[in-house]
Amino acid sequence: MKNKISYIRLFFIFLKTGTISFGGYMMLIAMIKYEFVERKRILNNNKILDAITMASFLPGPMAINVASYIGFLLKGWKGALISFLAVLLPSFLIMLLFSHLYLNSKNIPGFTSFFIGVMPVVSAVIFVVAYDIFKETKNKFFSFILVVFSFLIAYSVKGYISIILPLLICGVLNIFYNKHKIKFGFSSGNSSKNIPKIKGIIIALLIITTLYIFLNNAVINTPTFNLARIFANISLTLFGGGYVFIPYLDKIIVEQLGWLTQREFIDSIAMGQITPGPILITATFIGYKINGILGAFIATISIFLPSSVIIIFFSRVYYFFKSNHFFKIMIKGFKIGIIGLICYAGYIVMFREEIFNSFNIVIFIISFVILSKKLIHPLFLILTFGALGYYLHLNG
């Protein structure tokens, strides 16, 4: 698997993915799936679902964790680093530009209308991903029930538990439904692959623990070090994705530290929404205000990198347990539950008050039909309908 793609090709695929992935973490994951499963056929759906499953249970920004793990899966540690940097680079550079314009002139280029035109396409991409994964499930009726159940839980519950609870319940229900298939013990095969590399895991835990202790106990009080400490702590201790992080960021950055005013914080979140990539690229804005370009770089790396390292080491434990029949059936339930979470992400994107109208519903339907038939790349629809939304706003 590690020889199927070059480092340069890997870099440019993730660079493109990071450039066009408007709409939050699930759009970024959807584009990763599209590139590596649909277009390049380097990976299958199961590998993407494994990555999402692991990221769902771990701290830090989910989409970047998935991207880093896919890079590791394809090209080892170098691939993980290349994927991590490439997927973040577009949103980092755009946010740097926005930060400079905002903090110096309080003026941001008018991308809001473009963003509104893009959102129905984003929602369609996400729903197509859910549809493609659902088509591969074996028991369609039971899987559909789990998908609906997962969606309703995500809709009803708030916070990190809204991600974990649907997966756990779907995993348990799948165990009860398939209890006649359960065999205790680990599957046969290459036993060396079924044994987790404990030494590597211990070393990783020691490094992460040492870093955590150092950041929180070192007697250093410089702006750059404080940025690294705050954002690394967030990366290592918070679960549930960007939208779950926002209230915590507000409390720390605005209320406790006073680094941003409430208005600046709200505007930084808005800028994170209208740039491609993860919403937590807001960290770039915060770092830029505190210590310029260096501060922006440190804040961005600190909030995304620690959790990206964790998922790679956790994967060794994950695949060990996956070889157990009991856990294998539970993990299959997790993966069905993820389809419901993907649908919920698409629902959130589409059913926003500012974009939910008959015109955008038509865009959504057209985009879904075109994308489900794999007629063209999502990039063309994003550019076309984004430009249309911008044009209609100017002439509205």
Q: Whole-Å distance between the termini?
A: 51 Å
Low-confidence stretches: 188-196
Tell me the β content. Answer: under 5%
| Largest pleated sheet | none
Helix and strand run: HHHHHHHHHHHHHHHH
- The assigned structural class equals mainly alpha
| Count of β-strands | 0
Radius of gyration, whole Å: 21 Å
Topology, element by element:
Layout: H1 7-20, H2 25-39, H3 45-57, H4 62-105, H5 112-135, H6 140-156, H7 161-177, H8 191-194, H9 198-217, H10 223-237, H11 242-256, H12 262-273, H13 282-322, H14 325-350, H15 358-372, H16 378-394
Helix pairs in contact: 1-2, 1-4, 2-4, 2-5, 3-4, 3-14, 4-13, 5-14, 5-15, 5-16, 6-7, 6-14, 7-14, 9-13, 10-13
In words, what does this structure look like?
The protein is mainly α and 396 residues long. Among the domains are: 91-105 and 129-351, no CATH class; 361-396. 78% of the residues lie in helices and 0% in strands. It has helices spanning 7-20, 25-39, 45-57, 62-105, 112-135, 140-156, 161-177, 191-194, 198-217, 223-237, 242-256, 262-273, 282-322, 325-350, 358-372, 378-394. α3 packs across α14 and α10 runs parallel beside α13. The N and C termini lie far apart (51 Å).
How would you describe this structure in keywords?
0% strand, 396 residues, mainly alpha, 78% helix
